[in-house]
Specification:
The structure is a homodimer of 383-residue chains. With 383 residues, the first copy, chain A, is α/β, with parallel strands linked by helices. Chain A has a seven-stranded mixed sheet, sandwiched between helices. A three-stranded antiparallel sheet of chain A has the order 9-10-12. In chain A, 39% of the residues lie in helices and 14% in strands. Chain A folds into two domains: 252 residues, Type I PLP-dependent aspartate aminotransferase-like (Major domain) (Aspartate Aminotransferase, domain 2, 3-Layer(aba) Sandwich), CATH 3.40.640; 115 residues, Aspartate Aminotransferase, domain 1 (Alpha-Beta Complex), CATH 3.90.1150.10. In chain A, helix 1 runs antiparallel to helix 7, helix 2 runs parallel beside helix 7 and helix 3 packs parallel to helix 4. The mean pLDDT of chain A is 97.
Chain lengths: 383, 383
């Protein structure tokens, strides 16, 4: 089996992730931050260790500004629903995932906000100046992805964040794609809120994710409930991270995420990117030889977070993926990847795209086999 | 170590839970319901198997009416925030957890709903007739816990649900405490929404839970985002369970939960209750010999979901728990247990309660040791 669906969920995880989770759940996994007994304290400490590790990875001074959520979608909803007020104007891009588009479109539908969705260039790149041109005095937020989950293009988020900073508007960074292999340094970049999943580039398990909330930003929670803090108080507490961590957290998952981040820190974000670049380069070099293949991803690996999206003439992407799966056990993804406007942009709403997304554990040998398999599938289609 | 904090998180889990999770995460854990490749399909099938198992446990005909959430708190927020409209009247009880009280109090605070909190009797029991008396024509929901997380009292939920049914109002059952050892049969009881955690009586891992939504009930989601379905659509889809399952689900957690539910089904809910009853009886019999101990939990095990809550004279509960932990490695919980109104009711807001909560894997030997330890702590305090 060759796994090339890392943009959805990275697989496999480092062995240390499995071990940390197994150890947690079978030896000390009590309720974190609720009891004061040894296991409960150990669970709470383990969660806060992961918090520290993520803070250190993205250069956040106070790890308490990082709140754990079940996935990046919850984090994005907290950021969007929690910060926007009646009459606000928001600028986002056609390259966003439904986890950004749906909350925004829903608020727009009920006339709560005005929404501008800026277009991209032929590679899916967003021009910060186009965003700047749309800013008006009601603009309250710019929401942009770090990198497209459709074709892997890395966005000029530093420049976009500067536009937000200079205009005094919130900048929401959806770091779902790229974090772990694309450098994100919050000491060097203005970010009001950053949403991240644990199960993709951070190499943790599913069921984890989080939101960084800048100390300047006040957000309303989208849920309230037990926090283990201020139990006597009948409303949601103000302090972070409790404000956004109602109910029992996913301790074994968060512990696994901590081990994933450890692996990244030890290996180095740059080294992970270098390895992925090498795989992407080989994949691109191989696929572009075949004239039936149209590639949508950037050739310049500095602009690519680890995805090669393509189609074979006008064949439905699901047909190619099904053949890769059934004939070669190559696991990748077809369809719209929950990003409908990106496909509208690329004119692929009907057939979708075949998306190959590499991870640190893929090998050049796997890439070569994948190229051969695709060529063979195309050959068999024609002949 | 003796673990008596099962009302917070059950521990240990059946061995099969660890094995199922380990197998899932290390061999097939791709994105469920997103890709169409073998691993993705296997993950989606595994999630739906757990859905079926839970449906069969609580006797729900169509498992698609069960949606997975990160914990019971999210489920309760979906039920409360998603169903109530401006001007609605809600009846709940003083025995509820903050996961019910905080969302309701928050809606009341912003004048969106009227809230009646009914009182309990000396054992924390809620009288269905008291609830009935408070129903008026604006009443839209009755929200009640299956069993108190403070003292373990099992509520007369069948009778309360009948009041709701006869009055044509929604019945929200918080099954956080009791599910897995207290029979819950939705074929025999009117329930509009049922919220459950995975990590307590269902013996699954943290990071899991869900909501059952009756086919008659329409709920607004509290989040929107990618669902892997209707990707081209820029709003949250209507169909269950997708409507409430935005973003990547916690596949390994849900698989573990499935193994937990299997264990319960194989062992039998009645047998689990019988075993817990035996432990509770022994604990109560032992503790009531000591005149310094005041017990708040029901002596009749038919009314007790597995908790003995007590205090030692007017000693702060945290002092007793700390000694149990440090001197005897007995892990239990002190304080308010996120249920402030219950403590107001029992007049224990200041000192809280020591809560011993048993699980299926506790032994009579552990219970005897716990009784001795408590007696010894009390003896040392006096002498």
């Amino acid at each position: 089996m060759i796994y090339l669906d890392n943009a959805a969920t990275s697989f496999p995880k480092p062995e240390t992730v499995y071990k940390a989770m197994e150890n947690c759940i079978s030896t000390y996994c009590a309720n974190p931050g609720r009891g004061s007994h040894a296991m409960s304290i150990k669970s709470a400490l383990a969660i806060n260790e992961t918090r520290e590790k993520i803070a250190s990875l993205i250069k956040v001074r106070d790890s308490l500004n990082i709140c754990f959520t079940k996935n990046a979608t919850e984090a994005l909803n907290v950021a969007i629903v929690g910060s926007l007020k009646e009459g606000d104007h928001v600028i986002t891009t056609c390259m966003e995932h439904n986890s950004v588009l749906r909350p925004l479109k829903t608020m727009e539908r009920y006339n709560r906000i005005k929404l501008t969705i800026v277009n991209a260039d032929s590679l899916g790149r967003i021009d910060p100046f186009v965003i700047k041109r749309h800013i008006n005095k009601r603009t309250r937020m710019i929401a942009c992805t770090l990198s497209s989950n459709v074709n892997g293009i890395i966005m000029p988020v530093k420049e976009i964040s500067r536009v937000a900073e200079n205009s005094g508007v919130l900048f929401l960074l959806d770091a779902s794609q790229g974090l772990g292999s694309v450098e994100v340094d919050l000491e060097k970049m203005y970010v009001s809120m950053l949403a991240f999943p644990g199960h993709k580039g951070l190499m943790g398990p599913q069921g984890t994710g989080g939101i960084y909330v800048s100390p300047d930003v006040k957000l309303k929670p989208i849920m309230s409930g037990g926090t283990g803090s201020r139990s006597e108080y009948l409303y949601q507490p103000e302090q972070l991270p409790d404000r956004f961590e109602s109910g029992t957290l996913n301790t074994p998952g968060i512990v696994g995420l901590g081990a994933g981040v450890d692996f990244i820190t030890k290996t180095g974000v740059k080294e992970i990117k270098r390895k992925k670049d090498e795989l992407i380069k080989r994949l691109l070099d191989g696929l572009k030889q075949n004239k039936s293949i149209k590639i949508y991803s950037p050739e310049n690996v500095n602009e690519n977070s680890g995805i090669v999206a393509f189609n074979v003439n006008d064949t439905d992407s699901s047909e190619i993926c099904a053949q890769l799966d059934k004939r070669y056990s190559i696991e990748c993804r077809s369809g719209l990847h929950c990003a409908p406007l990106a496909h509208k942009h690329f004119n692929t709403s009907k057939i979708g795209m075949v998306r190959l997304s590499v991870g640190y554990f893929n090998t050049l040998y796997e890439i070569d086999n994948t190229i051969s398999a695709i060529n063979r599938i195309i050959y068999d289609k024609v002949n």
